[in-house]
Amino acid sequence: MMHFPFLLPQHLTVSSTMVGTSSPAAPTTDHDDLATTSTEFPHTTKGVGSSKTEKQVSATMQESYSGYVYLDSDKIVFGQRGSDTGQFKKPSGVVVSDDSEIFVTDSENFRVQVFRTDGFYLRSFQTVVPGENNRRMLPRDVAIDGEACLWVVGRIICDKNTHVIVVVQYSRDGQPGTKFQVDIFYRAYRRGTPIYTIAVDVHKNKIILAGSDEVFMYRPDGSFYQKFRKVQKYYPSFVASDKEHIFVGDKGFVQVYNHTGHWLFRFGGFGRYEGELCHPQSILVDTLGHILVANLGTGRVDMFTRWGEFVRTVVNTPTPSGIAIGPRGHLVVTNRYDNTVTIFPPKDTFL
């Protein structure tokens, strides 16, 4: 087996351009007792800890604003399987910067590609893991922090039986910075390939990762902060956050936690009808707190209030994998199954 310094039987290994230390007594929250008693709010604004005033505000927001209008006739679609500029091999994660640059993880090409909101190609960079002899990761998901740095999670193939899940911070032109290890995967002992997704809590300055069983939180210097066990164990899962909540998508539900890992409620329900979810993928929170979910099994991007009430289907699009919204309202959807990216420009009107 090739030498790989990450291969330590520990939860955390950090190599960083920043100075940081690990937390020796990081808190862990266990939710096994909730697994059989969880409360479900598929079509209601009710939620644990929500006051009457909060519900009224949420209802008012829904009546007055439910996002941009997108027309199928306006969409921009590009990409096909390949390794040339603007081609992809399993694009999944996507994020849009404050100046409307679109960053797409191009997994099996070991790179991130960057586009304008009209689909024009700008640049790309290889997802090199610093300090590992130019070894590259297969990037799975990407998020952006308050300093406009990218955080990419993916896996490194050490040999045919050993994969390592890592997170690397990159500048927008691809210069690597902080890196840390999340998991070691031995194919001889586990089925499938582990998938981790990533979000940045810009309010509390934490990096959030969702795995099949647990949600992990790290500081920007790469040091471990805390973890908590998920109520519903499902593989894979997808994560987003706002100032008060962490949203984790699992099979047919979105599970909602606070930032200490305490489970609050869930919404959705496995199915294909209005307000139901069928293998939800990417999750995002828009500027007014609505939750958008890439509903893979139904070919929809659906909107909910932050209390789990279904608002509307935003767009219909085949097998959506990743979603992001830009500062001017452009909705970007990746499709890792047909290797395309779709951009929906917003109309001037709101619903």
Structural account:
By secondary structure, the chain is mainly β. The chain contains 1 helix and 26 strands. It has one helix at 52-64; strands spanning 14-15, 28-29, 76-78, 91-96, 102-106, 111-115, 121-126, 138-144, 150-159, 162-170, 176-186, 197-201, 206-210, 214-218, 224-229, 238-241, 245-250, 253-258, 263-268, 280-285, 291-295, 300-304, 310-316, 322-325, 331-335, 340-344. A 5-stranded antiparallel beta sheet has the order 1-11-10-9-8, with no helix packed on it. Strands 2-15-14-13-12 form a 5-stranded mixed beta sheet, with no helix packed on it. A 4-stranded antiparallel beta sheet has the order 3-26-25-24, with no helix packed on it. The longest helix is centred in the first third of the chain and has 13 residues, at 52-64. It is globular.
Write a short abstract of this structure.
The protein is built from one helix and 26 strands. The protein has 351 residues and is mainly beta.
